Amino acid sequence: MSSKNYCPLDHTMNLIGTKWKPIVLFNLLDGPLRSGILQKKVPGISNKMFTQTVRELEKDGLITREVFPVVPPKVEYGLSERGTSLKSILLSLDSWGQMTLQIASIKRISC
């Protein structure tokens, strides 16, 4: 067994600390979404980055991916139990962002 020590914050940031991961996770808080709909809710993400992001989140156990055997193919992403445990953190980050945007008089857009 490894005797490495890990910083909890570093571990957390490795899981969710990219530009796109928190936004993908945030958009899944209200329930599963089809792949195309989820990608449209993440402003500015390329197809390549979307695919890479959801694959990493799935590999880390934060989201689930369900493929439906229909034509055309339907893929749906949702939060796993582990991903759902981030809900309060994501909502707090969103609230903090809303507050700071309001203070700075910057127009808010939906994530």
What is the radius of gyration? 16 Å
Which structural class best describes the helix and strand composition?
A: alpha+beta
Low-confidence stretches: none
Cα distance spanning the termini: 41 Å
Q: Biggest sheet: strands side by side, in what order?
A: 1-3-2
Q: Helix count? A: 6
State the helical fraction.
40-55%
Shape: globular
Record field, number of beta strands: 3
Brief descriptors of the model:
111 residues, alpha+beta, three-stranded antiparallel sheet, 6 helices, 50% helix
Short description:
The protein has about 110 residues and is an alpha+beta fold. About 50% of the residues lie in helices and about 15% in strands.
Write structural notes for this entry:
The chain has a 3-stranded antiparallel sheet. The protein is built from 6 helices and 3 strands. The chain is 50% helix and 13% strand. The radius of gyration is 16 Å and the shape is globular. By secondary structure, the chain is α+β, with helices and mostly antiparallel strands. The model has no long low-confidence stretch (mean pLDDT 92). The N and C termini lie far apart (41 Å). The protein has helices spanning 8-16, 21-27, 35-40, 47-59, 81-84, 87-103; strands at 33-34, 63-68, 74-79.
Topology record:
Blueprint: H1 8-16, H2 21-27, E1 33-34, H3 35-40, H4 47-59, E2 63-68, E3 74-79, H5 81-84, H6 87-103
Antiparallel strand pairs: 1-3, 2-3
